[in-house]
């Protein structure tokens, strides 16, 4: 019996469906296990990533709380817990590690352990894993502690790159370099640097006052002239 167009279409749909089912079954038999492995591994990796994110956040918060405790103790004039401070100096976060190292060196210096403080500052200055501002600050503090034992040229060689107007540490580095120049008899270099320090509004006032006096001794006028009011 001939099939009507409707029956023919229904028959073809059934054939197509059977073919698709057969292809799907063949595909699943061939690749199903591999797909399951991929899906499981993907879910495991995603779960591991979520866990690591949570763990990192928890650890960071814990380190932050410990750092706050240490800094509050140090600022208050107390002595931070040695074990806690040592642990923080090994923190994976460079900022916390640098802060802990600076605190450790400062505590050693206050106790009179200049040698211990210098060792910490020296290691920081050479640590490429720390941001440059921390390394520069460590070098300045190291040089300050060693100043009397260093030759003036050594001070200049160390700090001249930092003794530049507009640089973050111009005040501290510039003052030590200017004094080193003065000890070397290079007043032509010391005087202008003292004058620049005295006129730099970003330099701490205590350094500006000393620099103004030293510039005056060398015959250089470092007094700022107030700007004339503009005509309205």
Characteristics:
232 residues; mainly alpha; Serine Threonine Protein Phosphatase 5, Tetratricopeptide repeat; 73% helix; elongated; disordered C terminus
Q: How would you characterize the overall build of this protein?
A:
The protein is mostly helical and 232 residues long. It has a domain of 137 residues: Tetratricopeptide repeat domain (Serine Threonine Protein Phosphatase 5, Tetratricopeptide repeat, Alpha Horseshoe), CATH 1.25.40.10. Helices cover 73% and strands 0% of the residues. α1 packs parallel to α3, α6 runs antiparallel to α7 and α8 packs antiparallel against α9. 25% of the residues are buried. The C terminus is likely disordered.
């Amino acid at each position: 019996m001939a099939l009507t167009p409707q029956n023919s279409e229904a028959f073809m749909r059934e054939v197509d469906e059977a073919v698709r089912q057969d292809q799907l079954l063949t595909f699943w038999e061939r690749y199903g296990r591999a797909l399951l492995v991929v899906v499981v591994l993907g879910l495991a990796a995603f779960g591991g990533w979520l866990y690591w994110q949570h763990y990192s956040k928890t650890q960071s918060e814990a380190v932050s709380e410990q750092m706050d405790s240490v800094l509050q103790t140090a600022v208050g004039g107390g002595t931070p817990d040695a074990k806690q401070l040592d642990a923080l100096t090994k923190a994976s976060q460079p900022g916390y590690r640098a802060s802990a190292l600076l605190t450790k060196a400062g505590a050693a210096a206050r106790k009179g352990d200049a040698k211990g403080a210098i060792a910490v500052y020296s290691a920081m200055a050479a640590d490429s894993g720390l941001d440059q501002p921390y390394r520069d600050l460590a070098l300045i503090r190291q040089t300050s502690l060693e100043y009397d034992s260093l030759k003036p040229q050594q001070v200049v060689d160390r700090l001249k790159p930092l003794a530049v107007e507009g640089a973050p540490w111009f005040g501290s580095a510039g003052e030590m370099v200017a004094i080193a120049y003065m000890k070397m008899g290079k007043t032509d270099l010391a005087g202008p640097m003292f004058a620049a320090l005295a006129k730099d509004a970003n330099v701490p006032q205590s350094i500006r006052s000393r620099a103004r006096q030293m510039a005056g001794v060398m015959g250089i006028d470092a007094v700022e002239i107030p700007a004339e009011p503009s005509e309205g």
